[in-house]
Design a protein that fits this description.
Blueprint (H helix, E strand, L loop, with lengths): L2 H9 L24 H8 L8 H15 L15
Organism: hydrothermal vent metagenome
Protein name: tRNAHis guanylyltransferase catalytic domain-containing protein
GO biological process, one term: tRNA modification
């Protein structure tokens, strides 16, 4: 399956209208950044193709989000920038 097909299928499960979490049910939070090219190339001039500072910022963001109230079991970060 190509990425675009998977992306389209997964977006069905994403909704801005979901306002509660059902106890005992696992949830997946997919957080997609906006304008990351502007952030990584124009604002911070990170090194291409891979910058350790950017990696560390992404890891710290995931750690922070994992400690924001829910019992988080797993965190993952990935960027195509």
């Amino acid at each position: 399956m190509k990425f675009n097909e998977l992306d389209k299928k997964m977006r069905i499960y994403e909704s801005a209208h979901d306002h509660s979490v059902i106890p005992g049910v696992y949830i997946v939070a997919r957080i997609d950044g906006r304008c990351f090219t502007t952030l990584t190339k124009d604002k911070h001039q990170f090194e291409a193709p891979y910058d350790l500072k950017f990696r560390d910022m992404m890891i710290e963001t995931v750690k922070h989000l994992m400690q924001c109230g829910f019992k988080v079991l797993y965190g993952y970060t990935q960027s195509d920038e």
